[in-house]
Design a protein that fits this description.
This protein is an alpha/beta fold. The chain has one domain: TIM Barrel (Alpha-Beta Barrel). Strands 1-2-3-4-5-6-7-8 form an eight-stranded parallel barrel, surrounded by seven helices. The two termini are 15 Å apart.
Length: 224
C-alpha cells in the first residue's frame, strides 16, 4: 500500500485547513508535520498548538517528524495535541530504544529517522521496535531541496532487512519527492511518500497530489 503524506511545510499557513482539504481530495492519506527547533536543524517551524488546531481540521493521521534536540521532553505534548505518528532522529537520541517505547506509551506509532549521512546499520538494534523508518533524501531543515540519490540504496537495504528478518516496519522517504523521483523510491521499497513542494508548491494541490499518487502506484507494480 502506498501512502502519500502531504507535508504542510510547503503549504500556505494562512489557509492551512483548506490546503489540507485539497491534498486530501487528491488522495493524500497522511498529513506530515515537520517540527524544527532551530538547533538540530537551521530552521524554526511549529509546535503542539498548531498540531492541536490541525487535528480539528482533518481526520487523517498526523505524522509529526521531530527534528529537535531532546525530543523526549516534547513527545507527550505532541501526543496530547493529536499526533498519531511521532518520529525522532537517530542522531539526537542517545537512548533511542527508550525514546521509541516512550512514543508507543502514548498510543502513537513510533518512527525513527536517519539523515543522508547516517548509515542504515545504526538502526540494527531498533528495527524490531519501530513502526516505520523515515529515510531523509535531503538534509533536513528546508523544503524544496534537491533529492539525494543515495537514499534509494538505503530504502532498498531497509526493504531487504525487513524481508530477511521478518520485521513489519514500513519505509517512509522525505525530501525532493516529486514526479521525477517518486518512481525510483517506490520501486526501491518506499511505501510512505512525504511530499510538500510537489503538492503545495505551485498549481492545484488536489491535482498535484493525485498525479504524484498515480505515478507512485504505477511504480509499485514494477517492484521486483
Amino acid at each position: 500500500m502506498i501512502d502519500l503524506a502531504a507535508s504542510i511545510l510547503s503549504a500556505d499557513f494562512a489557509h492551512l485547513a483548506d490546503q489540507v482539504e485539497q491534498a486530501t481530495a487528491g488522495g493524500a492519506s497522511v498529513i506530515h508535520v515537520d517540527v524544527m527547533d532551530g538547533h538540530f536543524v537551521p530552521n524554526l517551524t511549529i509546535g503542539p498548538p498548531v498540531v492541536k488546531s490541525l487535528r480539528k481540521a482533518t481526520r487523517l493521521p498526523l505524522d509529526c517528524h521531530l527534528m529537535i534536540e531532546n525530543p523526549d521532553q516534547y513527545i507527550e505534548n505532541f501526543a496530547e495535541a493529536g499526533a498519531d505518528w511521532i518520529s525522532v532522529h537517530q542522531e539526537v537520541c542517545p537512548h533511542l530504544n527508550r525514546t521509541l517505547h516512550l512514543i508507543k506509551s502514548h498510543d502513537c506509532l513510533a518512527g525513527v529517522v536517519i539523515n543522508p549521512a547516517t548509515p542504515v546499520e545504526t538502526l540494527s538494534e531498533v528495527l524490531d521496535i519501530v513502526d516505520y523508518v523515515l529515510v531523509m533524501s535531503v538534509n533536513p531543515g528546508f523544503g524544496g531541496q534537491k533529492f539525494i540519490s543515495g537514499a534509494v540504496q538505503k530504502i532498498r537495504k531497509l526493504a531487504e532487512i525487513r524481508s530477511q528478518r521478518g520485521y513489519a516496519y514500513r519505509i517512509e522517504v522525505d525530501g525532493g519527492v516529486d514526479l521525477g523521483t517518486v518512481g525510483e523510491v517506490v520501486r526501491a521499497g518506499a511505501e510512505i511518500l512525504v511530499a510538500g513542494n510537489a503538492v503545495f508548491g505551485k498549481g492545484d494541490a488536489k491535482q498535484n497530489a493525485s498525479a504524484l499518487l498515480e505515478a507512485a502506484r504505477s511504480a509499485s507494480l514494477q517492484r521486483v
